[in-house]
Amino acid sequence: MLNRILRKFKSISLRLGMKTFDQFKNIKPFDRLDSNIIEQNRKMLEPYYKEYVRDISRADMAASIELAAFMFSICKLNNYTKLLDMGSGLSSFVFRLYAKETPGVKVYSVDDDAAWLEKTRAFLRLHQLDTQNLFTLDQFLTSKESGFDCILHDLNFVEVRINYVDHLIKLIDKDGLLVLDDVHKPDYMYAALKVLSKTKAKVYTLKPVTIDGYGRFAMGVTKD
After folding, report:
1. pTM higher than 0.90 for the full model?
2. Closest to 131 measured CA to CA, from 103, 108, 150, 113
3. Which CATH superfamily is domain 2-223 in?
């Protein structure tokens, strides 16, 4: 009982330390983020999203259209050139569609399921998008890649995902952004905030722009 009470107070304390979405929009380079831009990109991505959840993955398993539109928008606004997708799928499509429109962009897609990585490869090929730098998790961890402008962490289930949060914060550039999806799950949010509290990082809720019909939403992490 005492442990549960202490954990609850610790969870509340960690949540209070999280910054708001308005604070996120007040820092550069995210101050140019606009709801109209996100909505335009959502409409552009929606046909691909519908195809993906019809043919590849269930809607409750795939990245949401809300998250997809947000990720595409920040990539466009900030001219990101090195992107990492931890947990391949629709998000890999979104990053690589952006890369197709933006010269000089490198995208790395990582999955701990080799069969799923091949499904991602097939979907990318179907839409004539680049399929370079698709890695299994083990391959990526030995690659020593770092300096990413943006990382989306959506690998496997959250019980597995939490093990790589500390590592990924080290891989983003000093002005980069790490996005953690599915923090609507209290245990995952608590565990992630606990890990991040031991690093020099600032955490922002992205709930206003990423919450979907299942109640899923993301948070953003920047280096202090």
Report:
1. yes
2. 108
3. Vaccinia Virus protein VP39 (3.40.50.150)
